[in-house]
Amino acid sequence: MQNKGFAKHYYLMLLPGFVWLAIFSIVPMFGLVIAFQDYNPGVGVFHSDWIGFDNFSYMFSLNDSRTIFFNTIFIAVLKIIANLIVPLVFALMLNELRITVFKRWIQTIVYLPHFLSWVILAGILLDILSYTGPVNQVLSLFGVKPILFFAKASWFPGIVVGSDVWKEFGFNTIIYLAALTGINPSLYEAAAVDGATRLQRLRNVTLPGISATIVLLAALSLGNVLNANFDQIFNLYNPLVYSTGDIIDTWVYRTGLLNLQYGLATAVGLLKSVVSFLLITLSYILASKFANYRIF
Amino acid sequence: MKRKAGTKMRYVKISVMAAVAASLVFVSACSDKSSGGSSEASSGNGSNSGSGGQTNSGKPGDPFGKYDQTVTIKIGQAVDPTDKSLPAGDTPANNQYTRYVKDNLNIDTQVAWQAATGTNYDQKVNLSIASNDLPDAMVVNDAQLRQMAKAGELQDLSDAYNNYASEPLKKIIDSTNGVAMKSVTFDGKMLALPNVTVQADGIHEMWIRKDWLDKLHLQPPKTMDDLEKVAKAFVEQDPDGDGKADTIGIVGPQSGGHMYATFLLSTNNLYGFDPIFAAYDSYPGFWLKGDDGKPVYGSIQPQTKEALAKLRDLYAKGLIDQQTGVRKDSSEPIISGQAGIFFGPWWMGYGPLGNAVKNDPKANWQAYALPLDGNGQFSPHVGTPSSQFLVVRKGYEHPEAAIKMENLLLRDESKFDVSVAIGNYPLRIVYAPNDETEFTVKALREVLAGTKKPEDFANNPEYKLLNNDVNTVKKVKLQPYDKMDIQYWKPTADWGVWNRMYSLLVGDAPIVDQPMNKVPSLIYSQTKTMESRWANLQKMEDETFLKIILGAAPLDDFDKFVKDWKAQGGERITDEVAEEAKQ
Asked: What part of A 245-274 touches B (C-beta under 8 Å)?
């Protein structure tokens, strides 16, 4: 139907994206070879000594590697689940509100933290949860001894997931609200005429109406499973919570940048990339199967 | 407010670093490209760098010679974000010191990049090493120096040093009996200019609120038992008199801080527990001579377990800051007048005490060489004379320019108006004879007592600040001159002078007056295996010890740590240390 000139415009519009991708994502991939080298920055990639899989075998010999892989997956999976359920429930509740001004107001308030960086939010969190912070002051009213939240490894994943949900659920809520507006109002009217209660309307009209969106978001988030969020954890953690809080990204940062072990850090990063790649492929297959979401 | 601004800036810096770090893989990849380019460039320049340096300098070999044509040096610069001493319009990149360098040497310092002092600066240096994108000159630490030497990124400074270093500079470096020079010599080449610091920087003392002691009718704690009693009184008996149970006994390290100085970072550890460990004859992080003459690592010795058990006990009783290891900034409770005891080196007048006294003019912080060990002695560990290294990028045409800047600093530092923080001097590394602070304290005392006049100290050029010190001390010290409590000082007369005088006369006094049994480390730099294994061992140590002290892990985890430490490279490293200590 369309002539060829029109299609060319589309390709032209893709160009900036491709250039960006090439410069920042594809070219740097060649740097991954230093995972197999005793990398020496002075002589560069081409002249550093090759050491085969030494970095990988050392990586697997460290107790750390099991911990960080587990932590990364554990925290990321918790986040995915929480970030799927909380905004959904919240959107459904918001959808039932009939006072538009009130609804908009709430929507804006919960959306706000999304715009703050983790650097700022972490500072706020550390203060709120500090030994003399408001949370402990409230607890002391009930006779609870002050708790040093950030010194307890068992609390850390909870704090990380909780604060992440707090920051992002407003944003995700909007996606669901958009899906909710797409449901034909006459379906609700028909259900009401048939005598369905609010809960029944929710179960039989609303949920089926947005199920595709839920599945799509769930499937897509799988590709993110190894991104437990460097920014957040880096700003919150300390040696006391390494056992439950140290993730691949923070470990790579400390090892590679702080301790100048580039090869080892890259090896770990590479492994993460490989696993991520598999998961993205999987999530794409799932998305196309259940939500009919296809790029190609 | 000031502090907040600083913190915020630090956060911003951290976030930038974080973003950079998140893409470490990309960074290392980019380095490939840039290294290809710059290594070509450097080999091109490298051939004529030796002679190139001398053609443009006024008189060849003159340590203070002014260049005929302006020489540009691009530097990596550490900036103290809390520093408010620069007058309006001046910046860390353009201030009285950079202009002084320009006027006297015709060297134009340009800033390649800046980073906040401390961790941020280290990260920035690491990043520039990793990407092989180096400024002409910068100041690095031991691990970074080694990495750069291995990577062949450094200019050989042997000729520049021999031809251009001033006599006092050479004298100071020689005063370390070759230690400083050995630390920068690789395959016979001098790859950096080592600094030399006063020995006092490596000795950690107990700082305590004497006004609190007086109020509660207590004496400075001599033994560990005394220390516990005093800390308990500080926590429970409301020494600040506000009716609230909000006081802290002993301040501990902040998040990312160090519990003790180590052989790699052997000096200037703030808020650590060094003297407490020493009281148990424990020297974690140090390489000691074992009973059989072979090197042993202090952190895995039974004495360290004993010290940890005590610290754990103190923490559980609430006598050590409950937010130890988690707090963003441990100077905070000291400045706000919440805390009674902390450990640090002599120069705390430059540190948190300035602000503490600004907040509460009665905060009478005094220093003691305490607590004593089982033999009734104070046995501190001591650091290395050289911990900072001035390096020059391979292929930079004027390696001697960096050395000339240090010559000038050493010669003229006493003339500078130091109300502008001296940290703004480009590429500053500290040069001081080993006994500078002790010598100065004795001189100041004689001047105050009237037994000598300031003029009597005119002929000691290697003690670069002495002349100024003896002339200004009476500005801030009130009579009687032999009493050092805070009410006998007038810091408001000149805070800059007070910072120094209080640090010397109060902070350094115990080092002058009290005989000490000094414990050095066998080595102060990394061995071969450490390059790849130490980071992991260090992390394990920090994590285990902090957990033990804070009660998050049982004390017996120490034994597991010792076993793991040996198995994961510690034994091999111990052999290497033995090898190196022999030389």
From this structure: 249, 252-262, 264-266, 269-270, 273
Q: Which residues of B touch A20 (CB under 8 A)?
A: none
- Sheet with B248-250: list strands edge to edge: B248-250, B339-344, B205-209, B365-368
Residue B116 host element (H or E): strand B107-116
For residue B79, what are the β-bridge partners?
B116
pLDDT tens per residue, range B63-120: 898 999 999 999 999 998 877 788 888 998 899 999 999 999 999 999 999 998 878 8
Residue contact B32–A257, C-beta within 8 A? no
d(CA B583, CA B561): 30
CA nearest to A45 within chain B = B32
Alpha helix ranges (H) inside B363-513: 399-412, 436-449, 466-476, 495-502, 509-513
Instruction: Identify which of B26, B123, B144 has the shortest CB distance to residue A28.
Output: B26
ipTM score assigned to the predicted complex: 0.77
Separation of alpha carbons B172 and B433, rounded Å: 6
Please state, in angstroms and as integers, the Cα–Cα distance from residue B309 to each residue in B317, B327, B367, B377, B574, following that order: 12, 22, 25, 21, 25
From chain A residues 206-235, the ones with a CB under 8 A of any chain B CB are 230-231, 234-235
Cβ count within 10 A of residue B122 = 18
The pair of three-digit structure tokens given for residue B174, joined into one six-digit string = 């020689």
Per residue in B487-530, pLDDT (tens digit) is 999 999 988 899 999 999 999 999 999 999 999 999 998 888 88
Whole-angstrom distance, CA of residue B535 vs CA of residue B546: 16
The model's pLDDT over A112-122, given as tens digits with 9 standing for 90+, comes to 989 999 999 99
* Residues 147-206 of chain A whose Cβ lies under 8 A from any Cβ of chain B: 148, 150-153
DSSP per-residue string spanning B361-395 = TT--EEEE-----TTS----B---S---EEEEBTT
Q: How many angstroms away from the CA of B393 is the closest CA of chain A?
A: 11
